[in-house]
Design a protein that fits this description.
It contains 3 helices and 7 strands; from the N terminus they run ββαααβββββ. The chain has 165 residues and is of the alpha+beta class. The chain folds into 2 domains: 31 residues, no CATH class; 112 residues. It has a 5-stranded antiparallel beta sheet. Strands 1-2 form a two-stranded antiparallel ribbon. α2 packs antiparallel against α3. It is elongated, with a radius of gyration of 19 Å.
């Protein structure tokens, strides 16, 4: 039962308190991963097959997001320096910001966590064997081939085993 919540634990995610023993009263079977999922609003757990099936849609939106991100950086730099830009002016920058936000919101609406925007880093909550993991996709990767345990982050990335469908 090492994964079960003890009565003295408090967890922090993204700089905010998300759980403690008081929050778990009436939920004795909740694990740390359950508390984290509840706190960050994860409502979908992917299989590797499901995550790989949605990857073409992810890559299409990611490609557009990356282009808009670069355009926005170029335009805002020109505006900040008072230089003219063939990309437009302040209204165009605001339109790019709105589209960038719209694209970024698509991912969580489909159960995918946005961990970074430059480079674009996405995590798909999943189970691998019986462990809660995050399937990890980084801008530029052609396939979904990596995962990491919840507590290990990007530095703990490992290849998804070949025998996993």
């Amino acid at each position: 039962m090492a994964d079960c919540v003890s009565e003295c634990e408090i967890w922090w995610v993204a700089g905010r308190r998300i759980g403690s023993v008081g929050a778990l009263e009436g939920h004795p079977s909740w694990t740390r991963a359950t508390v984290v999922r509840q706190a960050v609003g994860v409502d979908h757990i992917f299989t590797v097959k499901q995550a790989r099936a949605i990857l073409p849609d992810v890559q299409t939106r990611a490609s557009e997001l990356i282009t808009i991100r670069a355009d926005l950086v170029e335009l805002t730099t020109a505006l900040r320096h008072g230089a003219p830009s063939p990309m437009g002016g302040l209204a165009d920058a605001k339109a790019l910001e709105a589209r960038l936000n719209e694209l970024a919101e698509w991912f969580p609406a489909h159960g995918i966590q946005v961990k970074g925007i430059a480079p674009l880093l996405l995590d798909f909550p999943a189970k691998l064997d019986s462990d809660d993991v995050l399937l990890c996709w980084l801008e530029g990767e052609q396939e979904l081939g990596w995962y990491h345990r919840l507590a290990h982050g990007f530095a703990g990335r490992r290849r998804i085993p070949a025998e996993v469908p």
